[in-house]
Predict the structure.
Amino acid sequence: MELFNQFVLPPTAAHLELLRYLLVLACLINFPYVGIVIGSTLLSLVLSAIDRDVSNPVCARVAKNLVDMALPSRITVLVFGILPLPVIWVIYGQWFINSTVNTMHLLPGGAFLIAAGLVVLLAYRGGLDPAGRNSTVVMGTGGMGLGLLLLGCYVMFGSVSRFWDPEKWFAVHHAARMLASWNLIWRFLCYMAASLAITGGAILFFSFSWPGKVSEMSDADIRLTKNLGAGVAIAGITGLPVLGFLYLFTLPIVSRSGEIYWLGVALLAVLFVLFAIVYRTIFSPRPRFGATAFVLFVVVFLMMIVGDQLTLVSATKEHIAGLVIESEEREAEIDLEREAMRAAAITPDVVRGQEVFNSVCMTCHQMDERLVGPPLNTVLPKYAGDMEALVSFIQKPSKVDPDYPPMPAPGIPLVDIKSVAAYLLGVGSGDTGSNGTDGSSAAQPQDQEGNGH
Amino acid sequence: MKKYLAIPAAFLFFGFFVLAYLALAHDWYRNRQAPDQPINFSHKIHVGKVGLQCLFCHETADKSTYAGIPTVEKCMSCHLNVATDRPEIQKLAAYWNEGKVMEWNRVHRIRVRKHVYFSHKRHVKAEIDCVNCHGEVKYMDKIRQVKSLEMGWCVQCHRTNDAPTDCLTCHM
């Protein structure tokens, strides 16, 4: 029950901070992996198609190797491809609690498509024959898996990208319309370019630096694998700057911040280094492609995911400020209740009331002179004998007289408010001449309270 | 030979995009980012915490094309007495004492940049909440533009609300 409450109540600032790191982590596990699956499946389909036209055993073997690399086992698919999805969903849901337009229902839809695509691709891997000449059924399975995966990614990106494009929230009612946005398309294509790049990196890394792989390959296999890996990686690496520019150019103004551009420049630097590394491998007969280079491809994804967080934080600044205030208010309310219980037992102290009046209220109020607020002897009579009303007005002031600016809440403990009210009513009733001494005016509010209960 | 040309070519390619990204950054810092103000005025304090209404300060929003920015006098109606010990308020008081006008930097600038007729009065009279066009101002410490204010945005809302959409409504 405690856990459940954590999830439905407005989250605190620290809570949201933690969620952000978790979200980055979940995305970092999921996105590069799904990227590799998409890239490898695409390449294997192309190679198998070539092999079907003119029988080409090298193509067929490499196609099979690619799919084996991307989908080595069900456990891998489950851990990297499927398990992070619900985590991402829950965190985004938490982030957008209370949001006026909620597109969260699209996210599980996208996640489901991705999971379904991965399962279909496992069947594709099982059916793919390294000897070549694969049947239409096998190829169709691959195509369907890839299609599901791409659609799932697009819907998932779309469902959350609405959050950094809130401008269209109020006007758009159909899910299909919400997915039609240039900014979203560029962002999706950025991730696709990064996916191609990391697929190339994975091909080079797992084929040439993974123990025991190279020895099983013929020279022709090695040449094709190498050129394919390097070519795809370079296509991704050079495509990303262009798409990134279009993405930044179409970014809605709420989502922008100075940092996002500097992050973009840093990304360009990493891409340039990657270009140099990958380019070198083309000319070495037995390429060596270290783990560091592969990690740089993951860093590209990390930077893009962090960039998404930056835009999200910028776009939802006010929304989050609202959530934090709400959670603070909830805590304050609990404090207030506790204090009220304590205060009920406390007798208002007129001497204390005078001190509070002098230090807090006097900045705006005099008894018989207009300052920021009205002279109190003109307004107090209407509270005579009704201390509860005066206490609740001071606690939560509302606008009364348009001639004056509204009074802000003083933010002092309830005990002090009661004391000051007792003091004021004592002074006020002194004016009307019914009660003289401090002692009797302190007793009066106590009676009031007795009646109230 | 070709082999060695690729790296300088790539350098030019990435260098070009570095410049392009920097141009976007420049546009952001120069034209779009919320400008710094002479005084650190916070809507979050005055609307969120103190509970003032927008029209209390932006008096002409329901009477005129311009919403109007409050004068120092209006601020001093409270700040002659409220929070006078804070440095920002002392800056404010200095303006007041010297009788200077506060030069607030504009956050929204379409009418300055383009020849567009826009009127607050019509929209406020039609009971469109400020939130629709200015966002959750009550949570902003430093006010910023949250909507594109582009033509497509204006026209989209006009269409959904059956407001006029012919060119002369907004372009004279």
Notes: The CA atoms of residues 43 and 101 of chain B lie 20 Å apart. The two ends of chain B are 62 Å apart (CA to CA).
